[in-house]
Amino acid sequence: MTVLKRYVLRLFLSIKYITANVVDRNNGRIIATASTVEHSIKGSLECGRSCNAKAAAVVGEVLAMRLKVEGLEQGQGRGIHVDVNKEVEKKGFKSRTKIWAIVNALKNNGVKLILDDNDDNTSQPC
User: CA quadruple 91, 96, 102, 108: dihedral positive or negative?
Assistant: First the structure.
């Protein structure tokens, strides 16, 4: 069975760490990941006890570079789906700046994102 939204961006936010994964829903595996847990990213940030939108932007840039290395920045022509409203609802209203920082960093680095609207089941390419 082929899933229409094959590649999906999944975000994990905590007070200390930010992790972004691109998941292949057909195979059930993670294609690319970036996190502030990694020493290469953690060393370049001054998060202290919490990560902010600047750290989220760095995670988005690193994820975009890794997607380009894999050759999937276009999502094999279909794009990478992200439902920002759903992510904000799950993570809380205070995390919306971090979520948008990751999305904007991916878009600015040439990743084809498709923003999904949960309300009317429509998708908008970015």
Answer: positive
